[in-house]
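We treat protein structure as text, and this decision shapes the records that our systems exchange. Such a record has a labelled line for the sequence and another for the backbone structure tokens. The record that follows is passed on verbatim for readers who wish to inspect the format:
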Amino acid sequence: DLSSLESKSSFTSRNWSNRFRAATLEAKIAAKMGKLGTDNSPKLKEDGEESDGEYTFESASCFTLELNEQGEPSSSQGVGQDSLPMPDGHVHDEEVPMNNRESTVSLVENSSDDIEVLRNSFLPSLSIRGEDEPNFPNSSNPDGLAVATAVASDDEPDYVFQAVEYDPDAKPPLHKNRRFRVYTYFALFLIFIVFVLVVVYITSMTKEAEVKDNIIRLTSQPTPKATSPPTTFREAQGLIEQLQDGVLLRNENFEDMQVTDPRVMALDWILHEDEQRLVSDSINLYQRYGLAVLAYAMDSKAWFNCGNPGENFTETSCSIYSSVMNQTVDYGVWLSGESECDWFGVKCSGDGIVRSVTLINNNLVGVLPHELTALRFLQMLALAGNCIYGTIPEEIGQLDHLLSLELHENGLSGVMPSTIYQLEKLQLLNLAKQYGVDRVCQQSNGTKIYTNYKHGGFVREFNVGLTGKLGSEVGKWKSMKGMYLSENSFTGEIAEDIGNLRYLTFFHVNDNFIEGNLPASITKLRNLRHLQFHDNFLYTSLPEGIGNMKDLERLSVNGNSMFGKLPEGMYELKKLKSLFLHDTAEANSPWLINDQEGFSGSLSSSVGRLKDLEYLLLNNNPITGEIPSDLGNCTKLKVLRLHRTELKGSMPREVCMLRDKDLNNENGVGVLYADCRPNNRTEEPRVQCDCCTDCCDYTTNVCVQDD
């Protein structure tokens, strides 16, 4: 009852509800009016049999109080659960739990604040009249207490908010967890990446599966034009057009080519046989096609090493002994499914770009294809010692990364293309020995190629090698270190621009048709070690500044129409090992210009400064005087030829003592020549020598071994 509730100062629980507070305040109002009995008071049910002062309302519903005609509560109604009317939508006999939570309220008697809260917030449908308010019009209330007023049954009760219990252990829903959202987004991103990779893989596999196999019927004779190659998915994607536009540089197209053309054969291999299955946007498409063209153009079936014989050949690797590494090394076979970087003689950088092709002495037979320009980053091309005939393609100048070009000892002919001067990074140029080498090679079909004839013998004209002039454009080769042009047919004078090649170390232009004087600027080549001008049509003397070429080791001007005295600066060449000054007075040779040919003057005693000298050839020159004893200081001499000169006297003992060193008669070859035979068989010998290996007759030019 209310007295027992008021005796308690408070009762507690973990949470409380506004609904319970509203019900309690209504009970207090009814008690104030003195019209409620203990039996009809709001029933409080103990939570369990013993609750220690903690109670739970059986109903948390709001209610209204009905009055009779006298303004009193109807006797047939109490304020309990069973007597008070319930709001619309509530079941009269059913308990309405408050989330099964116990509630706690503090009862404060005569609390006007609670009444105000009830009026304004929680029970807007309940009218309360205080002492200062007028009485109800149809009621008598002698005590002047506030009376609860009934409300119309059709009024919709306002929603009563419920208190929500705070649980310190509760966690927010997953979709509101920030970390959960981040992980979710990341997982979705990974799923998307995997999905894309799967799609790409399936697409690429589908491309390979869509290749349509067409049967090509072989004919007894080649067709005039290339037959249509099998249609493939890669063709539809523009692979042929890509190669045609990017590699064929002479306005050519595949449709106008013969089926036996190396370019068509390489295209067919790329489309139908190559296991790499390249597409139009493959990074290595150009270089792989360019190497395939080289293989077909050079008849790889006939190669000594690592060629591809074709016709059911399944080997993909070959073993070659390397003298440099002193072991056997495995390489990939050309035109195999291996990466082109693994093919024999091919070297690539770390990014898979072809940088070097070296196929020396490997029986390459054919014409250089201009499709080599597909190897755009090529730095070294070495195809020496083969049977390559024809001309050097002009497109060679487009290989602007080229550092080394070695095509020596082949059967090339024609004019050296002027575009080769565009290779400004070139450091080594070796085009020597294009004639004079009688090599015979055999193609895979049995055809023989002869390098001493033009175009390999298909034209019965003697091959004289490459032609052209070393004009002012030679100065463009600023990085040149080695220039080998010997045994060709170059003509004209050497331009003074040769002096601009400050890094030039080896300069071989012997056995050509070079004319005129030695350029004076040549003495500016301080790094030069080899200077070979022999067997040309020079008419000149040695320049005075030759002593400035301190690194010079080999000097050969023999076989030219030289004249003048030996310059004193020549004896300053302390590193000189080979000095070939012979045969400059050949009266019966085509080099004869006048009867004053040949070096004149005497052999200076300064020759003893050349302590590293190994070869000294002065024969066939009008040199006068005696043989200086200082020549005995050249203790490394291996060959000394002083015959057919104007030298007289006796061979110095210091020189004869060199016979006990390197100046000896090995392998039956004479190493010390002098005019020590009776001249014209009747006169006294010009030189008395008892240590010479060969004695010669100056007049008859007959040398007899005398050792």
Summary: The chain has a mean pLDDT of 79. The two ends are 155 Å apart (CA to CA).
